[in-house]
């Protein structure tokens, strides 16, 4: 029997027609003389009826059917009895009376219910991922991801970008995270690396004159994992020549607006807001701010500069700042909640966390008794404090104080339901520092990567104060997640060499690691720049999932393993011998 229709397309227009459906038994209900089966495929569900008054022969097979049996059904479409329609599904006005049934395959009792209501642990669902992917929600997520990829390809192709594949086996050029390495059988003792990104190759394509490139590409990073990070991930990689920063921003905004419209049917407006790095950190305590929480950090250093509260005034004398966060309508927060927040802050490196709550009886606080009346009045005026509000205080170096209050802002904003989930918040964060100082390594490192161009007017600062040099980098932020990052690249070898010097990369090391790129820059490299957008993370946010594992067909766990295939695994000794590898244990 050849399938004529899917399980999601039958309507009243087909009443009286013979159809052949194929799929899985979602639910079987035996009502004595009648057997009902909900037949499921990725398009939907159709109710199947084994009715002995219509055809007695299939009834015996109907009695055999169990959950997840694979079935082929030939039958006639009829309208459901009045009052028995199911408005929750698209086929709910009709059913198919079985004339012929074939069990294509049987199935033992599944380890969990194949339903969106399953309460199975994620470990079990990952072990039996092929069953987990039968659930309607999981199929919906991957179908949406497919639509996203289609939209991306169509949009960029219409913008005259060319899709070009770059190598999966390349040389190791560490870019922050550890590489995944692949030993070579043909070249004993040498190893390929799986690319952390196509960064160098897409720059070479610009040197080659392709002008506009894109690729939906797998990338690999051996780093600590979390809910929105995987060891292998997919990015929308884009590069273009003869452009400036605003050209990239405008093009990407068009792509994002098109994605929301075509995939979600949601209209969002551009241009997106621009925040510089300092503004984002100072106001939100994060370079990927979630502005759906309407709270902002404030600075109270001037208020406490000469305070009798020595913890604050001494900190200011040491060059530290007093950052504060107003929590509106914080009546539900008790002393134990503030004490828990203090422990959370200390876990992030704070020496302590001050707090005060404005009640009808006055200031409830372990530190406010040390404030002068003028300081209290100044705080009330600056923060527009009202009864029921609370304030958090951190006295520390500017960056750390911002980060700590930024983290507390997020957790408290969600807890107190200040986060407006009905909003879609998109913004660009610009003007990152080009370098940051690593005190452990006692050297400067790149904030993004070493091929990011400085703001040209800041180039003289490279010789005097590298930390003040701004980069021509940019991050796209969606609802508090960084979903894309890129920059205008260095296309001049002399400037690239100056950056390497600040990063303490010697000419010999630069030649060894990036020699092919440096040579290419001498052969007429055009001005160019680009961006990489995280397809997995975008799909997670567009589907409303909380983990990118839900939008990846076969993901890894947080320990970078696959529970289904049990990868990574041991390999045969013969394979290791071919690769000239001997494994050791211990130190």
Question: Strands, helices and their partners?
Answer:
Blueprint: E1 18-31, E2 34-41, E3 44-50, H1 59-64, E4 70-79, E5 94-105, H2 122-127, H3 129-132, H4 136-158, E6 162-163, E7 180-183, E8 191-194, H5 199-207, E9 212-220, E10 232-241, H6 245-264, E11 273-276, H7 277-284, E12 297-299, H8 310-317, E13 321-327, H9 335-347, E14 354-359, E15 362-364, H10 373-383, E16 390-396, H11 398-415, E17 426-430, E18 435-438, E19 443-446, E20 473-478, E21 481-488, H12 493-502, H13 507-521, E22 528-534, H14 535-543, H15 573-578
Parallel strand pairs: 3-5, 6-9, 11-17
Antiparallel strand pairs: 1-2, 1-4, 2-3, 4-5, 7-8, 9-10, 10-22, 12-13, 13-16, 14-15, 14-16, 17-20, 18-19, 20-21, 21-22
Helix pairs in contact: 4-6, 4-14, 7-11, 12-13
